Amino acid sequence: MVRLSSIVVVFLLCVVSSYSANDVDVQEICKKATDHSFCLTLLNSMSGGPGKDLGCYASYTIDVLRTNVSNTINVIKKLIEQSGSDPRKQNHYKNCLSGFETDDGALGEIEEALQLLKDLDYNGVNMRMSALMSDINDCSSEDETSMLSKHELGFEPGTLHLFTFKNEEASMQYQELSERHATLLIQEEGYWKQRAKMHWLQEGDMNTRFFHMSATARSKKKKVSKLIADNGTEVHTQEELCEVAKSYFDTLFKPRDGDYDPVLNLIQPRVTDNDNVFLTAPIIKVEIQQALFQMHPDKSPGPDGFNPAFYQRFWEQCSEDIFSAASNWLERGYFPTSLNETNICLIPKCDNPTSMKDLRPISLRNVLYKMISKVLANRLKCCLDKCVSQEQSAFVEGRSIIDNALIAIEFIHALKRKTQGRRGELTLKIDISKAYDKVDWGFLRGVMTKMGFTDVSIRWVMMCVSSVNYSVLMNYDRVGPISPGRGLRQGDPLSPYLFILVTECLTALIHRAVGRGDLHGVRICRGAPEISHLLFADDCFLLCTANVVEVNELMRILHTYEQASGQEINLGKSEVFISRNMSHTAKEDLSRILGVRLVLGTGKEVMIKSVLQAIPSYVMSMFILPASLIDDIEKMINAFWWRGGNNNNNKGIHWLTWDILACPKTHGGLGFRNFEAFNKAMVAKQAWNIVQNPNSLVAKLIKARYFPHSSLFEAPLGYNPSFAWRSMWHARQILSFGCRWRIGSGDNIRVMHDLWLRGSADKWVPSPQPAGVYQLSVRDLLHDNYKAWNIVKVRNLFSGDVAKKILETPLVSSVREDKVVWEEERNGCYSVKSDYRLAMRYIIGSDKYHVAGNWNGIWKAQAPHKARHLLWRLCRGCLPTRCRLLERRVECILNCPVCDVEIEDELHIFFRCVVARDSWCAAGLSSVLHNGVYQQSNAMDRIFAMCSNESSDTVGRVAMLLWSIWHNRNDKLWNDNVQTPRQIGRYAFDAWHDWYSVHKLQSNSVSGTTEVDLVRWEKPALGWVKCNVDAAFLSGSGRTSVGVCFRDNSGQLMAGMTQWQQTVISPVEGETWALLLAMEEARHRGLDRVQFESVDRGHSHEA
Fold first, then answer.
1. Where are the transmembrane segments (predicted)?
2. Which of 42, 148, 190, 668 could form a disulfide with 58 if both were Cys (CB 3.0 to 4.6 A apart)?
3. How far apart are CA 501 and CA 602, in angstroms?
4. 773: DSSP letter
């Protein structure tokens, strides 16, 4: 054991605070030239409670199952030797060893071997790391004053260095051991990252400590110490806790008899024969592969311990077995018992849970089962649009739950404004208790049968639903098995689609009542659709006339639905809002009949609590946040950034404004989010959806209410608008900057009122124009018999500049439909990301949005993020050198704290200080320091010049060296610790080399200068024809030309053609036009086996 500094002790106490003192042994392994010493923490696994199930963590997937099987076998042999007289451990390790040494790669054989990981956990990595660091110490000389041979590291003559080895063989061994050590670092971080479930952290230093503490916190939070049983008694022992959990789920999943017929008789067939052929076609390997790679690799494994990362990494090796097994199971009509076993993990909803209702059950299924389930789900969702009514907005492709949220907001706003009239109206928000868990399987089967699904489709679905066996994880003890008789598993890919099929029965009941006149929907204005209900997956909004008759009818419908489907309405969490023209007494009477709480006031609470509060991004998707709120948020984040998170009175120096920090990294910022621009981009997406889907329910309602006789871009704000429309109205300006009409027939595009011009920021035809032009459509400017501009007519109607813009707008004969497209994306579809960039340019201004400099070179440098960040701060003038502090009116001594000779600025501290210059030499970078190209008068220009002329590896080494120099400067200033230039140089090289080794293994590629591949024309295969196309643009002429040539498989020219057009288009559009002409020509010539290739891009397509 060694004495550790008090800081290290505090750190270790924080990390291992969940373990008793007798269970922890900490040993310093080796002090290497990196950020910290390596400490081996040995935890007594036998005192940590029950053992955990096998988890196939990504770190071990890389180590055990890819390249290091032999190393792992050696580790197991060492464990056998160290297990001493413990026969249980010896037998277990020997079984694992035989599993690793087998040649059979099937999952069943390697699973026994992988059980080793249950015992090794983090300590297995620590053991190997300890052995490696010992080997590194053995090959490294203790003589810190001797010189390293310049031949060994390839440095220039005269280079100073501190690396010392006993001999050349030791130097090579050091390199090999360092790479193996980097591999272990990845495994260590990967292990804790998976257990921490922090998928958002993508880059930076090795974050093992962060992930370890997160995993420890998650483990402590999940622990349940007491529960209240059904009889009201409080239980504490593990055995009693397990019994309470089992009893709860046995009751929850217990089936009950239901009356299906009154509901099922209302369901009409909706699935076509073609749909059934698609749904029941034999599965193919590509479908399974697609389903697998749609899963996040680090998702928690099921009972078998294999996570998605395992199957994704070894897809080539196990794909045939998986495909064969899946096909066999579906063909014979049942699964193996173990396949659909499911663990239920209990996540506390609050601190110190005391009831099972305080625990959120999460189903952990085997990935092998999820692949099959997801294949069926991917097929089913393609047919949902015709199976599910328009009132349901969740889980149906092409619909958005936000659409129904917007409709609900408009209705609540309308009821709030309704103060006159004898007819009142109400909205009832109902909450369904344990909606997924109580779905009746017989009812689900009946619904699918009535909708027209074949017996094969239904059998496959019911295999997935009914073959499940549960085990509850209570403090890591498995409780079970529990065999359910009803319910859908949340998290199963099929469950959401099956659930909304069940909710179609509620829609059918309501539609029948409306058709009979027993129930009336609500209409917010003349011309708007009448709506009786809205569905948000398992949440429901019901709307009707506020009278006793209709309220009783509503309750009868809900009761019928409960009896048939097994669902239960939770009246305690349901709420009703009634229009303001009803008396308070009448409102109370109706709420009493319904048995739900009456919501008073504005009614916004209903929407916020039921829908918006669940996912905060929904709020920013529908409402423009107040400027004062956005400003406060950005100020807090800015203060946190510059203060470093310390809650003290020192606010720190705000070197840059938030607007600058929010600029992209390529433009001199840090890419932080500008909330105003992001908020407007998200709201603009709703406006875009209304423009693109005019026949959707929300589009019809919004248009009828706010712009019945115009387009969204011309709509006035209107009288007493809702907050949602007010937000959309303000966001449409940003939307208009990137939108334009794509000309098809031209009938729907108004010349003077729509955005359709190309090649200019202003897409409107400018006013004033002759009176007759204002009523014209674009179709009136085309020839009658073919799609081309009527040049004479255009020039007669418009001035020279406007006529030129019109005639340069391209026309494509194959495009027949007028459609609004988004210019900022190649596919013409709106994205929040591209609109955010557009909004940033307008909100911040182009002068702040882009600052000149080779910022890309900084961020592409091969170095740790902290080193690249230092380069950015240096170039942005944000480093607190003494000259910079003086500029900020901070009184301080100006001399350099390291050499105490010259005034400290960026140029001095990094390039001119004697300690810095010697450090450059010690790090092997003297040639860069003295290069005449890098002798600019300020540090920023020097860095940019290096980024432009040196490889990313060299820039990375420079960045790491500058970080080390700055770190040494701060250590001297605040702690009076002094390092020699040799120590600084060694630290910089070692730190960079360690990072580079880890980064190389993680990315499987090394960035740097690569030779450009030569593009050569290749002959097509026998029997095929190759068609090469290209587009050319004559600058300033507004003319685009394309060329097409066909060659056979011997390279002989078969045909060629050229065409030009007086138009302004992008290079991508030019190549697309050329491909379109080539395809038309190939069809005209009767060629059916053609390989099309774009000359500039090298893209190849076969037809």
1. none
2. 190
3. 34
4. G
443 burial level (CB within 10 Å; 0-12, 13-18, 19+): buried
Instruction: Name 886's Cβ contacts closer than 8 Å, sequence gap at least 6.
Output: 892, 894
State the DSSP code for 47: G
Choose among 917, 1024, 997, 1005: nearest CA to 961: 917
- Residue 268 counted as domain residue: no
Answer with the one of 846, 879, 897 that is the final residue of a domain: 846
Residues 6+ positions from 1062 with CB-CB distance below 8 Å: 807, 808, 1038, 1039
- What are the phi and psi torsion angles at 516 (to 5°)? -80, -15
Of 50, 123, 878, the C-alpha closest to 477 is 50
Tokens encoding 965: 């120099």
Unique residue bearing structure tokens 């501290």 = 909
Same domain, 174 and 54: yes
Q: Let me know whether 946 and 827 are in one domain.
A: no
Angle at which helices 116-139 and 69-82 pack, to 10 degrees? 100
Same domain as 711, residue 820? yes
Contact 435, 394 (CB under 8 A): no
Whole-number Å distance between alpha carbons of 37 and 26: 12
| Position 353 in a domain | no
The number of distinct structural domains making up the chain is 5
Q: Which of 503, 512, 510 is nearest to 567 (CA)?
A: 503
Give the list of residues 6+ apart from residue 604 with CB closer than 8 angstroms, or none: 412
Q: Are 501 and 444 in contact (CB under 8 A)?
A: yes
Contact (Cβ atoms closer than 8 angstroms) between residue 412 and residue 475: no
**Are 101 and 157 in the same domain?**
yes
**Which residues, including other chains, have CB under 8 Å from residue 158's CB and lie 6 or more apart?**
921, 926
- Name residues whose C-beta falls within 8 Å of residue 820's C-beta, 6 or more positions apart in sequence: 691, 692, 739, 740, 741, 742, 755
| Maximum Cα interatomic distance, the chain, rounded to a whole number of Å | 102
For the chain, the C-alpha Rg in angstroms (whole number) is 35
How is residue 782 written in tokens?
Answer: 């085309």
- What mean pLDDT comes out for the span 876-900? 89
198 pLDDT higher than 60: no
Whole-angstrom Cα distance, residue 945 to residue 857? 9
Q: Which residues is 30 bridged to in the sheet?
A: 38
Q: Are 703 and 690 in contact (CB under 8 A)?
A: yes
CB neighbours of residue 818 within 10 Å: 19
Contact between 15 and 212 (Cβ < 8 Å): yes
Residues 6+ apart with CB under 8 A from 708: 527
Please name which of 841, 847, 626 lies closest in space to residue 734, comparing C-alpha atoms: 841
Task: List the single range of 102-116, 807-821, 910-924 with lowest mean pLDDT.
Answer: 102-116
Structural domain boundaries, residue 567: 389-440+486-614
For the four alpha carbons of 321, 324, 327 and 328, in that order, the dihedral sign comes to negative
* pLDDT band at residue 731 using 50, 70 and 90 as cut-offs: very high
Q: Kindly state whether residues 842 and 864 are assigned to the same domain.
A: no
What is d(CA 871, CA 873) in angstroms, rounded to the nearest whole number?
5
Cβ atoms 1026, 1091 nearer than 8 A: yes
522 pLDDT higher than 60: yes
Whole-number pLDDT of residue 127: 55
Q: Tens digits of per-residue pLDDT, 385-441?
A: 999 999 998 888 888 888 999 999 999 999 988 888 889 999 999 888 888 899 999
Residues 6+ apart with CB under 8 A from 948: 854, 857
Q: Which residues are registered as beta bridge partners of 598?
A: 576
End residue of a domain, out of 846, 863, 889: 846
SS3 state of residue 341: strand
Whole-angstrom CA distances from 281 to 278, 373, 387, 757 are: 5, 15, 19, 47
**Bridge partners of residue 359, in order along the sequence:** 348
